[in-house]
């Protein structure tokens, strides 16, 4: 990728960082007894792996530097501890929400709403910030997909 | 840049004034007439907004300082922050006088009579003119107060110019505040200014997203682009789900020797010298032939020098060799190693059959 100067900072670490984090998370996952004993493909395993993928991606991408990663990790931690439904919308910044509702362009608001539902932690963000987060999120997601693809290809029996 | 030509013409018209500035030195405490006169400079001149941090004691000095920015033969560097130091030579003084004369001739009357209200703002050198050294940095040397209301009045003056204004309502990503310049023919109340700034922020980020998502450049219209972006995000998330399902299907057993491997991997990846440390790892010598053959292969690969890309031709890993980055290649070697650790017992995995499309 060309290293063009972009004032909006959306750099993403290299693939090996993602791979490392993912493998670490997977190994942590595997040390759990509940994971290995049921040998059948249960949906739990899938879910756990999926969650591991997201968590590792969030960590690899700079855990607390980005809003979406923070929110992701927060969600994951909460789900581990208790069944508290995470509040997607932050209660803070009411002035922000008010401003959003006032100034929103109707065209982009609909799409922005959908985007907010997709990107973790998108509830409390303004549209411009949301798009920054989306860009970073897309980059990290594609990295993660590449890593997982490699892993799956490497592991799949021929 | 058409502005330079216009400036040249203007300078000719104004009388040997090289860079006719549209100065609005805001902190002229003293000279009332001179200040407004300066503000009502001929509309043909460039529109500039200069904010000085320190209100100079004398109006003339301020005027000189304001004018001296663009006038002196080597124009002083436009350091927006902090006190501007200007050579106060005779030429500047006479230019100041000349400007006041010119300003008196042409009264536009669109001055809102604002005085040094924004003097607390660090100087802003929003040079529109032909300064050769003008880079983005000089334009980025902007600061704004929270209230764009201050600028709106200035922009009203700006609007009086008949010339096309330079569209300098760029967004500054680096600094916390954004200067917004009202464009010609546009409303200048604070709401619309803020709205415009916000819209441009969003447009800038939209462009960024368009570059990210493949196939978005062709699409016109923000709604479709946003839809495309949303589809892309959704497809990526679905891909993650698919791959996690496949991973869950593929992994029957677990090997617990990953810890040492990953620990060393961690250090090596961070150091960048992944090659040596990963290979010199105390690998768990599993009994699978895959592991051993893989291990042998990696021992062979230690011979080539470190920074070089591993010669993948002799090995059946052609796909890996396509990685430009050495780190990636090594990472995938380790990835394979780790994954083979994971696949203890599944002897069906042969390294020479493994091809990773990256």
What topology emerges from the helices and strands here?
The complex is a heterodimer of chains A (158) and B (358).
Chain A: H1 15-30, H2 33-36, H3 43-60, H4 67-81, H5 94-103, H6 106-118, H7 127-155
Helix pairs in contact in A: 1-3, 1-7, 3-4, 3-7
Chain B: H1 2-14, H2 32-39, H3 59-71, H4 90-105, H5 136-140, H6 149-159, H7 190-212, H8 222-250, H9 258-271, H10 274-279, H11 289-300, H12 318-321, H13 326-342
Helix pairs in contact in B: 2-4, 3-4, 9-13
**Low-confidence runs of at least 5 consecutive residues of chain A:** none
Class by helix and strand content of chain A?
A: mainly alpha
The stretches of 5 or more residues of chain B where confidence is low (pLDDT under 50) are 1-39, 45-87, 107-172, 253-257, 266-332, 340-358
Number of strands of chain B: 0
Largest sheet of chain B: none
**CATH homologous superfamily annotation of the domain at 189-252 in chain B:** Helix-loop-helix DNA-binding domain
CATH architecture of the domain at 189-252 in chain B: Irregular
Compressed to H and E, one letter per element, the order of chain A equals HHHHHHH
Biased composition (Polar residues) (chain B): 106-125
Biased composition (Basic and acidic residues) (chain B): 126-143, 167-176, 321-331
Region (Disordered) (chain B): 106-176, 293-332
Keywords (chain B): Nucleus, Transcription, Transcription regulation
From the structure above, extract its key features.
heterodimer; A: 158 residues; mainly alpha; B: 358 residues; MYOD Basic-Helix-Loop-Helix Domain, subunit B; 13 helices; 48% helix; elongated; disordered N terminus; disordered C terminus; transcription regulation (chain A); IBH1_N (chain A); IBH1-like N-terminal domain-containing protein (chain A)
